[in-house]
């Protein structure tokens, strides 16, 4: 899915495949492994003892690597690897593959190598545990079994020699034990308060590592279980979610090739009411599941229609009761983003095919395709009903208008992929964020950026403007901009002055989503640390917190501002009720 944005060199993919294949070779040592000249299949032949044959196709290995990259947040790397390895052309049903499948099979491979090391050539088992902290890299080293066994034998010999020497020393020292005891006891007394201790910490405590364990949530801000509804139904990670703008219908999009509409209205049956929107393609005159991720979705302004974009390259329009109204097909690759214009007559989409398209929502026809980017388009946003901006991995931002055959403006200045763009509520300023760790503010009145905001220490994944200031329903409140980064922080910016007013630091993993409440007084943030935090935008203080069961991809507020929806990597969707 587009949604996860971090770049990695293409060699990452090749190294990953090489290591995985190596572990398979060690783990399945009774089988010989070779690649055919075409490289499309890893063939496993049976052993001399006639065990059952095994086969591992490179498509299968590639799919596990692809899913691992997606689950780890390397979406751009996943996209590139998926294109190069032709994942979309494989017949693998991704909905049947459980999360963390690659890690699971690698762990089993390590256990097999550990078992090999534990057994002597004659079939006997070492007395004790022959290895400690066997890593994935250790497991693929040549002769790891022989090396570890030899090291363990030497260690056993040293231990036996030390034990014999210790026994002799103990016997020799037995006569002096009584006189030596007081000194030993004195040395064993713990230091008094204020004295130096191990690692410079009182009582020899270990140094604190914020990433070694989940952060404890303050009981005063923790959302109680009875205020959190967990919606189950998706069979894979849920990348996106969005509230209907006029009612408590929550839409979600998943890697299981479905979108779902959950009814959270007071007169519904709680979280049990869901509509399943299956994304199918025509094959042989029949509709079959596409087995492709639903990567984006957006409600129209009056809440009557839902648009979805999929990795199968199609955009679809659905009614609020779950019926497919039309299918929009002109992209030649996955769709990363799509948006309704305010009027509701056009839909805008961004694709891997380097183009953006304006669609007529009524007829389903493409009004105009804009082929100006030189690499995949990642995000789009409307300035008004006919003008929009788009950004890309080509580091450029184009402002285009329906009916114009060239961009009306091009902004250049980022030095890496541009992940997201957003117009402010007045349509005067455009914000962009990038893997170059900068946040830039642009104006149609000039070619260079108005502000170049540099404070984050890692890639900035997404940005959101507050619904405050001119052209909003909260005109008396100052406008703010929020940025979410892979450095685990969220920053709130005063754009007029170009300064960061608050740095929100409670998350411990990359932050993928931020969303302002309708009145702009609160900000929700979601991170892969499984936490949703609610912040006071004026003070920067944490007011609510919830820990879910999976990494958070998206957070969103309902129209009344009393519920927050969140979608997670374990297939769950949670709804937090913030009413007192």
TrEMBL record:
InterPro entries: Ebi-like, LisH, WD40/YVTN_repeat-like_dom_sf, WD40_PAC1, WD40_repeat_CS, WD40_repeat_dom_sf, WD40_rpt. Keywords: Nucleus, Repeat, Ubl conjugation pathway, WD repeat. Residues 182-216 are annotated as: Disordered. GO terms for biological process: regulation of transcription by RNA polymerase II. One of its GO terms (molecular function) is transcription corepressor activity. This is Uncharacterized protein. Pfam families: LisH, WD40. Transmembrane segments: none annotated. GO terms for cellular component: histone deacetylase complex. WD repeats lie at residues 231-272, 294-318, 328-369, 411-452, 453-503, 504-545. F-box-like protein involved in the recruitment of the ubiquitin/19S proteasome complex to nuclear receptor-regulated transcription units. Plays an essential role in transcription activation mediated by nuclear receptors. Probably acts as integral component of corepressor complexes that mediates the recruitment of the 19S proteasome complex, leading to the subsequent proteasomal degradation of transcription repressor complexes, thereby allowing cofactor exchange. Belongs to the WD repeat EBI family. It is found in: Nucleus. CDD domains: WD40.
């Amino acid at each position: 899915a587009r949604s996860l944005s971090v770049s990695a060199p293409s060699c990452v993919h090749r190294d990953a495949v090489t290591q995985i294949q190596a572990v398979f070779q060690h783990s399945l040592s009774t089988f010989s492994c070779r690649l055919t000249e075409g490289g499309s299949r890893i063939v496993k032949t049976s052993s001399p003892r006639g065990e059952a044959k095994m086969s591992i196709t490179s498509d299968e290995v590639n799919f596990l690597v692809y899913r691992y990259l997606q689950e780890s947040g390397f979406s751009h790397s996943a996209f590139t690897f998926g294109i190069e390895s032709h994942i979309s052309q494989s017949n693998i049903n991704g909905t049947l593959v459980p999360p963390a499948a690659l890690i699971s099979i690698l762990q089993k491979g390590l256990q097999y190598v550990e078992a090999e090391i534990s057994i002597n050539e004659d079939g006997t088992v070492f007395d004790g545990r022959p290895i400690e902290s066997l890593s994935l890299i250790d497991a693929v080293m040549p002769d790891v079994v022989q090396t570890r066994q030899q090291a363990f034998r030497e260690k056993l010999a040293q231990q036996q020699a030390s034990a014999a020497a210790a026994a002799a020393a103990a016997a020799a020292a037995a006569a002096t034990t009584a006189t030596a005891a007081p000194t030993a006891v004195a040395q064993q007394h713990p230091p008094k308060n204020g004295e130096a201790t191990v690692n410079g910490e009182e009582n020899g405590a270990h140094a604190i590592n914020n990433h070694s364990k989940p952060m404890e949530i303050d009981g005063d801000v923790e959302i109680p279980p009875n205020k959190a509804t967990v919606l189950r139904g998706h069979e894979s990670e849920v990348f996106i979610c969005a509230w209907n703008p006029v009612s408590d219908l929550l839409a979600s999009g998943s890697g299981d090739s479905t979108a779902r509409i959950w009814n959270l209205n007071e007169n519904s049956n709680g979280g049990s009411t869901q509509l399943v929107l299956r994304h199918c393609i025509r094959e042989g005159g029949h509709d079959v599941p596409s087995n492709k991720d639903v990567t984006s979705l957006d409600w129209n302004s009056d809440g009557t229609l839902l648009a979805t974009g999929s990795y199968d390259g199609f955009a679809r329009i659905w009614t609020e009761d779950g019926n497919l109204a039309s299918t929009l097909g002109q992209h030649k690759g996955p769709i990363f983003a799509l948006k309704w214009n305010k009027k509701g007559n056009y839909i805008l989409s961004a694709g891997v095919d380097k183009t953006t398209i304006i669609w007529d929502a009524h007829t389903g026809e493409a009004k105009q395709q804009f082929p100006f980017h030189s690499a995949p388009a990642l995000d789009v946003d409307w300035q008004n009903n006919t003008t929009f901006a788009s950004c890309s991995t080509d580091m450029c931002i184009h402002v285009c208008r329906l009916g114009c055959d060239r961009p009306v403006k091009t902004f250049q200045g980022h030095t890496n992929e541009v992940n997201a763009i957003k117009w402010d509520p007045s349509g005067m300023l455009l914000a962009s964020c990038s893997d170059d760790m900068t946040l830039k503010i642009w104006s149609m009145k000039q070619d260079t950026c108005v502000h170049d905001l540099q404070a984050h220490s890692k890639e900035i994944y997404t940005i959101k403007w507050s619904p405050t200031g001119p052209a909003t329903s909260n005109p008396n409140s100052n406008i703010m901009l929020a940025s979410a980064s892979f450095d685990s922080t969220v920053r709130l910016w005063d754009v007029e002055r170009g300064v960061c007013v608050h740095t929100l630091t409670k998350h411990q993993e990359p932050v993928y989503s931020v969303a302002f409440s309708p009145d702009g007084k609160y900000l929700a943030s979601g991170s892969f640390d499984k936490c949703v935090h609610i912040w006071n935008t004026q003070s920067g203080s944490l007011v609510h917190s919830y820990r879910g069961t999976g990494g958070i991809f998206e957070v969103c507020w309902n129209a009344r501002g009393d519920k927050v929806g969140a979608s997670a990597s374990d297939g769950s969707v949670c709804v937090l009720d913030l009413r007192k």
